[in-house]
Amino acid sequence: MILLVATGLDVAGPWLAQVYIDGYLVEGDLRAWPLLLLGGAYIGSQGLAALGRYLQTLYFSRIGLEAIYTLRQRVFRHVMRLPQHVHDATPTGEMVARVTNDTDAIRELYVAFLATVLQNLVLLVGILVAMALMNLQLMLIAAPLVPIAGVVIWLYQRTSGRAAMEVRRLRAVQNARINEAIGGMSVLQAFNRTDHFRHHFHDTNISQYNARMRTVRISGLLLRSALDLIATIILAALLWVYGLEHLGSGAEIGVLYAFITWLGRVSEPLIEITQRFNIFQQASVAGTRLLRLLDRPEAPQGTDTGPVEHARLQLRDVHFRHHGAATDTLAGITLDIPPGSFFGVVGPTGSGKSTLLDLLAGLSRISEGSLTLDDRPVADFAPETLNAAIASVPQEPFVRSTTLRDNLLLGSEADDAQLAAAIDDAQLRELIDRLPDGLDTPLGERGLTLSTGERQLLAMARALLRQPRILLLDEATASVDSATEHRMNRALERLRGRVTLIVVAHRLSTIRHADRIVVIEAGRILEQGSHTALLDRPDGHYHRLWHHRQRRSAESWQ
Ligand SMILES: Nc1ncnc2c1ncn2[C@@H]1O[C@H](COP(=O)(O)OP(=O)(O)OP(=O)(O)O)[C@@H](O)[C@H]1O
């Protein structure tokens, strides 16, 4: 409604001018009141039209922003619920682009495309109607501008659409390159590969420049130039016809004025509509990508919220195969993990240790066999219930670039006493005392100001804050300094008996005192038992591993 009124007021301006010119000026009537009245009406109508346009823009923007808010919320929630294998196979930058750029393209569709196209189409129709009412013959001369402009728009779409797609593709490549280079900057610098990457970047940059120039050339040629030329030809035709009819009389010169003004305004909406079609194209590509993402099934979630009483974990002939993999990563794992026990898991790299922890944490689902917590399938548990009972410390803990306190809490609530207990249990106190602002020290991006071992202790304190029944720890590396190693061992010793500990270890010293050590190779359990029992088997794998490590560390001390 506002749109129609605003357009009517907009179009009325030249009409009022025509009334004044033909009714008073040409007649030689130079009294003040008609000028004041019609001039005031002219200014008023244009002012109200501007107000109307402002209200429309506000309205469309609100619709757009509301749509984007809901959509972004939905896409992000969906992304967080996608199964692990989807995240493993999708580059981070691509997921980020889905949630930010693609949803933004949809916003543009509402704000910039639909609003502009609708406003301009209505304006176009309004001008044509006003022309027809004023002078049908002249309107019929001006009207062909619309179909001719349609052809120009079609040509523009055909030629510039491809170039615009190329610009966007190159921009995505460029973003990925920048992401990759910045993420791996230390490696690039250490390997002296910065120049190599710079040249690669230069190549895509040049291609993007050329593609961009192509779009500028096409739009420069077809948009303003072609449409202005056609408008000028039509203007000449109008002058010709008007001249033939009113030659020398000067009659209806106001009509000519109104037509020239309207004609000048017809090409603007046409150019706007043409330009906005790119946004439409972008939004439809983004929309297709978003729909494809939203169509991907979320990881199934259980609903069992019953309390976990004993926290006994049992695995019966568990098999697991990674999505799309040809063979099983874990095969025939059978384990009984009683509450409060300390289990160590060792094995060569790639043997499936981290995968086993992912299954226990409910991050991946077993392919075959049974995995239960208190005799209830782990897969049936609601994520909140399972996460409250089982906490994990991954190999590469997630550290945000905020303070240590925020990193420990990770959005949850805990009082000072709980925080202090978790910090003490994880042996994090010494580190906090060393930091300039203690718990309120910012940790820098991805926690790079902390060592690998310290990041794991932080993740352990974070996990302990939730007071879990079972703690899964995937030891980051064999090569932490002896002070950190000592702190980690002390932390495990402190937790022992209070919490079930399942620890994947690269340093055998970490799990030396475990109740049971499980040796895995190629996804199968080779042997299990206590440290002494396993060492008592001279031809056992653990025996060999232990003596091999002992020799290596003895050599490194020589
Ligand atoms: N998403 C995946 N898709 C396919 N295979 C995978 C995937 N993730 C891991 N794997 C494979 O599964 C096997 C076990 O990996 P896992 O990370 O569990 O080993 P690991 O014993 O923890 O090794 P490390 O000691 O180096 O941490 C490896 O061969 C690995 O290549």
UniProtKB/TrEMBL annotation:
Intracellular or extracellular location(s): Cell membrane
GO molecular function: ABC-type transporter activity; ATP binding; ATP hydrolysis activity; ATPase-coupled lipid transmembrane transporter activity
InterPro entries for the chain: AAA+_ATPase (IPR003593), ABC1_TM_dom (IPR011527), ABC1_TM_sf (IPR036640), ABC_transporter-like_ATP-bd (IPR003439), P-loop_NTPase (IPR027417), Type_1_exporter (IPR039421)
A Pfam family of this chain: ABC_tran
Cellular-component GO terms for this entry: plasma membrane
Membrane protein topology class: Multi-pass membrane protein
Name of this protein: ATP-binding cassette domain-containing protein
Organism: Kushneria phosphatilytica
